[in-house]
Amino acid sequence: MTFRYIGSKSRLIDQIAAYMGPPKEGAFFVDAFCGTGVVAEAAAQLGWNVRINDNLHSAVISAGARLISQEQAAFEKLGGYANAIAKLNAAKAVHGFMWSMYSPASFDSCGIERRYFTEENAGRIDAMRALIAGWSKAGSIDEVEERLLIADMFGALNRVANIAGTFGCFLSKWTNQSQEKIAMRCRELKSTSVRVEAMVGDVFDVPNGPQDLVYLDPPYTKRQYASYYHILETVALGDEPEVEGVAGLRPWKDRASDFCYKTRALKTLSRLVHSLKAQKVLLSYSSEGHICMEDMKAELSKIGKSTMHPLGAIGRYRPNKVASSTASDVNEFLVVVERPPAQLSKTPNKIVKATRPILVESYA
């Protein structure tokens, strides 16, 4: 992963992995808010079967790409992975959706000059995405290879994006890196594979069983990921949505998370943990979050034994230099919740919103 993701656990992964334990036969490590997949990747390295979920296609694609092996992405019909990347880098710019909406060319179409990308880079993003879609339609690449290339596109466009850290908005002045020519890169693929199931949907509908280990990392803050990473979602889907405002946001409110609302977060968390069938749950918690630690402890104590383990302090998300000079560190914790075996048969059925089973597949 080559871009900052709000709430990423990349700096804490060794501490979190220490609480995973060895994999149980047939059981899954369930990363229900997978984000970019750094925690799921660590579980896979320990030998766990992995099930990833998020309500954003772009997150599931990013997380899934971390788990793909060399054997699963041979790109036989394109002459290998490196050759596929080279073909994409050679694609000539076209005047497509990204060019018309997220480069200065947007001024002619909507009267707003959006400076996410230079016109040349935006046109090349359009060309790359169209080429990937064409390969997929022609059968030159399979679904795993397609999503690997889309994930590689995320890294490439981020390296030249004229942004402060997320895609919530663009900068008024061009940065030096935004003037560089976009280029995709091969990543190092895994030498071996584990069973991976990926889905895009509601967290309440993620399958889990008593022997599974469930990891939860809810947003906890007011930042809605669907709006902060809207361009990645558009690239992931390859669609052309109606966009609004100066930032050109795609419609995102149907993906808004209850965890991002202070008045709903604790109640939603309690319902979620209650609804799980897994006997053991790992829950990430941050002092930046708007759930009171004492209230969380009280709720979790109703479910089973819970222990809170400090993981240390990390730098707060900083969108710009001013924020960097004033922001304090964030204290991170991992809560281990263990439900007594007698409770497992009493676990309530899954509730709340309907799932969006847009992507369900196995990389095994």
UniProtKB/TrEMBL annotation:
Q: Which reaction does it catalyse?
A: a 2'-deoxyadenosine in DNA + S-adenosyl-L-methionine = an N(6)-methyl-2'-deoxyadenosine in DNA + S-adenosyl-L-homocysteine + H(+)
Q: Which UniProt keywords apply?
A: Methyltransferase, S-adenosyl-L-methionine, Transferase
Question: Which InterPro entries does the record associate with it?
Answer: DNA_methylase_N6_adenine_CS (IPR002052), MeTrfase_D12 (IPR012327), SAM-dependent_MTases_sf (IPR029063)
Q: Which Pfam families match?
A: MethyltransfD12
Please identify the protein, giving its name as recorded.
Answer: site-specific DNA-methyltransferase (adenine-specific)
The alphabetized list of GO BP terms reads: DNA restriction-modification system; methylation
Q: Which domain of life is it from?
A: Bacteria
What molecular function does GO assign, one term? site-specific DNA-methyltransferase (adenine-specific) activity
State which Enzyme Commission number(s) the record gives.
Answer: 2.1.1.72
The answer to whether keyword Repeat applies is: no
Which Gene3D superfamilies is this protein grouped with? Vaccinia Virus protein VP39
